[in-house]
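Problem 3 from the worked examples.
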Amino acid sequence: MAWVLLVASGLMEAVWASAIGASQGFRKKGPTVLFVVALVLSMVGLAYAMTAIPTGTAYAVWVGIGAVLTVLYPVARGKEQLTLGRGGLLLVLIGCIIGLKVVG
């Protein structure tokens, strides 16, 4: 259960990271509200997951999931391009996340 919650919290990290960019310095209400809600959900989920998963592993997995999804979101929307280099580095990051789960 903790791992499922950790993955969901990583997803929420990508949501709040994308929302903060869309908020234009907290001037747009919708993205600002989304940022706050996603931030709270992300932190609560991370904190709960850390009761069952070592802090270093949980934090690294949470950050990794958030980072990968935050990069892929604008790619999926056609706003950024996924170059060979970026794609390769994302694959390495995903491999490291999986590795932390396997050894942790």
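Problem 4, a separate protein:
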Amino acid sequence: MKRKLVILGAGESGVGTAILGKKQKFQVFVSDFGNIKDKYKQVLLNNEIEWEDGGHSEEKILSADVVMKSPGIPETASIVRKLRENKVKVISEIEFASKYTSATIVGITGSNGKTTTASLTYEVLKNGGLNVALGGNIGKSFAEQVSESKYDHFVLELSSFQLDGIETFSPHIAALINLSPDHLDRYDYKYENYIESKFRIILNQTSQDFFIYDADDEDIIKWLSQNPIKSQPLPFSLKKELKQGAFRRDNDIIIKINNTEFTMPIATIGIQGEHNVKNAMAASTVATLLRIRKQTIRESLEGFHGVEHRLENVLKINNVMYVNDSKATNVNATYFALDSMENPTVWIVGGVDKGNDYNELLPLVNEKVKAIICLGVDNQKIISAFGNIVDTIVEVDSMQMAVQVAYKVAERNNTVLLSPACASFDLFENYEDRGRQFKDAVRNL
């Protein structure tokens, strides 16, 4: 009898898992409560995988041996509750796929900067000649890449939702680059639950594995002081010198691992800002552990200029720079964006609020923001938070309108910044769609 694998959600991770499941001789059934995109339907048809959309066939799903749940589906969904009641094993793509690869895995998580850090790490390892792929919460499905079985190394960007669905998954090198409240709507509005999820990345590590983390992050340090870990700690810091790990000395990054020391001038890093110095420290630590040459690490850091939708300069029009930071889906990410603004800023903000507290942004908004454009279905919280400190607050219901209003409000030497601090699912498919719509609207001015 073939084992039955049911997949809930037919996006990138779902369809990738279906392909791997079929290769591993499972009887595969894919079920999506919404509509499956045509490009994914085609893949399922080409691979002769059974699927349904627009609802769930409960009997079929509940008879599964194992269920892979896509990260966007919450635990509170009725089909997931029924699976739990029936004691059916529900896991994430990361858990399922990791069983079928012997590759060395680097797992990177954090509230902000994980895409930048994962992309940078991947670039350094690839430039160093490793046979490496990038996956997880970014790019092509990890499961599908495992099914191709041609990689020796994986760099995985991991969200808390993906980590919630692991049981035995264990990266050889894990990195937790920072913590700040995010997705609290999925964690009973309890920050400590979200923190526990993030630390699942080291749950199954052993003394042969490594854990890279931000030693300046109070929430990380507090958790580590209360919970013993098995893996070898490699902290990074901008504030203090460390015996082992990465730190700043004057204008250099220093990386010390065992008896090797590596120095890199901060000024030559291709992506600027303090948070990016930390991202570079994490990536360099991984590269040093995997024995990439120092010269290759330096050249890779110099040549890397960031990822799409993360503080991405789009165009300068009438001496106004338009910046796409659509990937800022929480308050802390927007904090970094506003902090890096040097000119008076017209800020486009809003979307689906995930339990945001805007208080930490007040000083920055006061100092840097001249106008706010609210782009969401419900903007009340934003208006309440900033109504007293910003004179101009406008509500719009499309990206095109947001950009046109910004164009009217902005003056020479201003910046127009899209940094929503919210999820995008009210008016857009995802943050990429939101960022692309912004860029298209700017190019059409």
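Solution to problem 4. The radius of gyration is 22 Å. The chain has three domains: 4-91, 95-303, 312-443.
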